[in-house]
Design brief:
Elements (H helix, E strand, L loop, with lengths): L10 E5 L3 E3 L6 H13 L1 E7 L5 H12 L3 E6 L2 E7 L11 E2 L4 H12 L4 E5 L10 H8 L4 E5 L3 E7 L8 E3 L5 H11 L5 E6 L6 H8 L4 E6 L2 E7 L8 E3 L4 H13 L4 E8 L6 H9 L2 E10 L2 E9 L8 E2 L11 H9 L2 E7 L11 H11 L3 E5 L2 E7 L9 E2 L5 H13 L4 E3 L12 H8 L1 E5 L1
Parallel strand pairs: 2-15, 3-14, 6-7, 10-11, 18-19, 22-23
Antiparallel strand pairs: 1-23, 1-24, 3-5, 4-5, 7-9, 8-9, 11-13, 12-13, 15-17, 16-17, 19-21, 20-21
Bound molecules: shikimate-3-phosphate (S3P) and phosphoenolpyruvate.
């Protein structure tokens, strides 16, 4: 992992036409949840297609530290012997969640209503990210949290010995906060209610139902009202993790901007809480065909055929779409640079509290590559230069952020001059086979 002071490998990318099949690894959000819910079930959960990225590995290690038995049987094939809701034991050491906001926030939820204490930390990126958004609602259960100023890691969470159920309306659209409350609600007697005004990824709700919890989702004037009955016995499951649409975004967008490309991307989620990027690309004039729609691992998926799209136009991305494409704005801003006209992204200030300030990272990097950008606290506007129009020729800073690193490497595959990134090491957090997969399609990603 990066961020501990050692020199980081600079990586650069260029590309010929891309062709072939881009089979991306398992979904990161679903992988974290399969391990965590597996650890809270009684008995053995079997997982296939688990993402073996560093973020998920760190969650697997954490589940072991809390007393679950996590075993790897082969590539993507894992099992978790769970200890039951409320059955976590106190870890003997600090829990290091590395680069993962999802890992640390969801695990804090599980600890919140268990009578144990745990101290959490992470890498330099995670230690900058706000945890108050999770510990504030968790305090309503009776949980205490002691962290650094501004609610930063390292932080000790003291679980409530006698938790009470909670009713909480999310002030930000965040699946991590929603999931932390639901995980805490599992070990609180009675009904815990979370209300979200805008729908966010619903993997926790789907998985809770699969593991046998009593959960109800109602659409009211307040938004989605999610009611969970506490203290269920979770039944172990067999979880087939579908491919990650956030990873699929990278080869998809590369094929759209690299001249002569024609690739297939199998099994891309069509879950309405995850597919915002793909809707947006189609509206821009991207040549994407959605074939063979079906259900895989409980998620609606389709196979994509993606071709070089020289006639894409900038659009105004509907603000309410943001939660369904929140991790895809960096790569969308790259595609926008290869469209004609302006692409306007509003309601995106959540990007400022991800692994890096993603608005700032993309704005500065794209400017260095010759693209005109307008930026406000909550808005990013990219002035497109058309197919093949981006000059490139810069080294972009990645700030310990995998999505920033991959976005600029993809930009470099279609820019006039090569683009480098200062540190490619964060890519292993979510997409460990990125380099090999892209090179297999015809790109040339080189180190040093
Ligand atoms: O719940 C999840 O698995 C995730 C939720 C999103 O974060 P927020 O909840 O902060 O929006 C997303 O950015 C992250 O990559 C994964
Ligand atoms: C924001 C992300 O992840 P996390 O919040 O889990 O670190 C991401 O993967 O883009």
């Amino acid at each position: 992992m990066s961020g501990h002071g050692e020199a980081q490998p600079m990586i650069s990318a260029k590309s010929g036409p891309l062709s072939g099949v881009a089979a991306v690894p398992g979904d990161k959000s679903i992988s974290h949840r399969a391990l965590i819910f597996g650890a809270m079930a009684v008995g053995e959960t079997k997982i296939t297609g688990l993402l073996e990225g560093q973020d998920v590995i760190d969650t697997a290690k954490a589940m072991q530290a809390f007393g679950a038995t996590v075993t790897r049987h082969g590539e993507g094939a894992w099992s978790v012997h769970g200890v039951g809701v409320g059955g976590f034991s106190e870890p003997a050491d600090v829990i290091d969640c590395g680069n993962s906001g999802t890992g640390v926030r969801l695990i804090m939820g599980t600890v919140a209503t268990t009578p144990i204490s745990a101290t959490f930390t992470g890498d330099a990126s995670l230690r900058k990210r706000p945890m108050g958004r999770v510990t504030d609602p968790l305090s309503l259960f009776g949980t205490q949290a002691y962290g650094r100023k501004g609610g930063r890691l390292p932080m000790t969470v003291v679980g409530a010995a006698n938790p009470v159920p909670v009713r909480y309306a999310l002030p930000v659209a965040s699946a991590q906060v929603k999931s932390a409350i639901l995980l805490a609600g599992l070990n609180a007697p009675g009904e815990t209610v979370v209300i979200e005004r805008e729908p966010t990824r619903d993997h926790s709700e789907r998985m809770l139902l699969g593991f046998g919890a009593e959960l109800n989702v109602e659409q009211t004037h307040e938004g989605h009202v999610i009611t969970l009955l506490g203290r269920p016995e979770l039944r172990p499951q067999t979880v087939a993790v579908p491919r990650d649409p956030s990873s699929a975004a990278f080869p998809t967008c590369a094929a759209l901007i690299v001249e002569g490309s024609d690739i297939r991307v199998p099994g891309v989620s069509q879950n309405l809480t995850r597919n915002g990027l793909y809707l947006t690309l189609v509206e821009m004039g991207a040549l994407i065909e959605f074939e063979n729609p079906r259900t895989e691992g409980g998620e609606p998926v389709a196979d994509l055929r993606v071709r070089f799209s020289p006639d894409m136009k900038g659009i105004e991305v509907p603000e309410e779409r943001a939660p369904s494409m929140i991790d895809e704005y960096p790569i969308l801003s790259v595609v926008a640079a290869f469209a004609t006209g302006k692409t306007v992204m509003r309601g995106v200030k959540e990007l400022r509290v991800k692994e890096s300030d993603r608005i700032d990272a993309m704005a500065r990097g794209l400017e260095a590559c010759g693209v005109t950008i307008e930026e406000e606290e909550d808005v990013l506007i990219v002035h497109g230069m058309g197919a093949g129009g981006m000059p490139g020729g810069a080294t972009c800073a990645t700030h310990l952020d995998h999505r920033i690193a991959m976005s600029f490497l993809i930009a470099g595959m279609a820019s006039k001059k090569e683009i480098s990134v200062d540190d490619g090491s964060p890519i292993v957090t979510s997409f460990p086979i990125f380099e090999g997969l892209m090179n297999g399609l015809g790109a040339s990603i080189r180190r040093g």
